[in-house]
Amino acid sequence: MNTNDSITKGLEEALVFARGQKGRVRVHQVSVPEVDVAEIREETGLPQAQFARSIGVAKGTLLNWEHGRRHPTGPAQVLLALIAKDPDVVQGLLR
């Protein structure tokens, strides 16, 4: 199977799933823990502006997360969960 065939097969499976039809589709669900953004940032020792830059978000977004007005979702939540486990992970990877 070449790359185009693989992509086409994946798209066909996605359409079957989106239509709610039964098919040979595997659905993966990942559970990401809730995160305390302020606590995670404090563990890194970085000020708000620098931490926000290091994870690619605006400082205002970080402030909203830290004050509970908003909550990180998707990739941001996963990244923050990784940082919670290893506060130096981002700096280590970006060096």
Automatic annotation (TrEMBL):
CDD domains: HTH_XRE
InterPro entries linked to this entry: Cro/C1-type_HTH, HTH-type_reg/antitoxin, Lambda_DNA-bd_dom_sf
Domain of life: Bacteria
One Pfam family named in its UniProt record: HTH_3
Alphabetical UniProt keywords: DNA-binding, Transcription, Transcription regulation
GO MF terms, alphabetically ordered: DNA binding
Ranges where the HTH cro/C1-type domain occurs: 37-73
SUPFAM superfamilies named among the record's database cross-references: lambda repressor-like DNA-binding domains (SSF47413)
PANTHER family to which the protein is assigned, alphabetical: ANTITOXIN HIGA-2 (PTHR36511:SF3), MERR FAMILY BACTERIAL REGULATORY PROTEIN (PTHR36511)
UniProt-recorded name of the protein: Antitoxin igA-2
Organism for this UniProt entry: Jannaschia rubra
Gene expressing this chain: higA-2
